From TrEMBL:
Alphabetical list of PROSITE patterns matching this protein: RIBOSOMAL_L24
Entries under HAMAP family matching the protein: Ribosomal_uL24_B
Any one Gene Ontology cellular component term annotated for this protein: ribosome
A Pfam family recorded for this sequence: ribosomal_L24
InterPro entries, sorted: KOW, Rib_uL2_dom2, Ribosomal_uL24, Ribosomal_uL24_C, Ribosomal_uL24_CS, Ribosomal_uL24_KOW, Translation_prot_SH3-like_sf
Function: One of the proteins that surrounds the polypeptide exit tunnel on the outside of the subunit. One of two assembly initiator proteins, it binds directly to the 5'-end of the 23S rRNA, where it nucleates assembly of the 50S subunit.
GO BP annotations listed: translation
Highest rank taxon of the organism: Bacteria
Protein name: Large ribosomal subunit protein uL24
PANTHER family: MITOCHONDRIAL RIBOSOMAL PROTEIN L24 (PTHR12903)
Membership in a protein family: Belongs to the universal ribosomal protein uL24 family.
Amino acid sequence: MHVKSGDTVIVISGEDKGKTGKVLKAFPRENKIIVEGVNMLTKHKRAQGPNDQGGIIHQEGKIDASKVMYYCGKDKAGVRVGYKFLEDGTKVRICKKCGEVLDK
């Protein structure tokens, strides 16, 4: 998957097109991610006990990873992600626009 937890991404299609946010959680097997502030769902929660309060809860839902692009702070735009091997043999992600290494 081209994005990981903690990355900043921009949504390129759908209802939330143009929004940017941080990836909170990634689900590689499903090819889905949860982005903060994107795909907000409304959940009605019932009180589970005398001390627990019920109500309406707003939370982020999963979206497909193909609907987002990595947001490069240097380019101030969504960019494609490439892969490269360093001299020590580690595989890292790079920005295809500016060539910056994304994995520290």
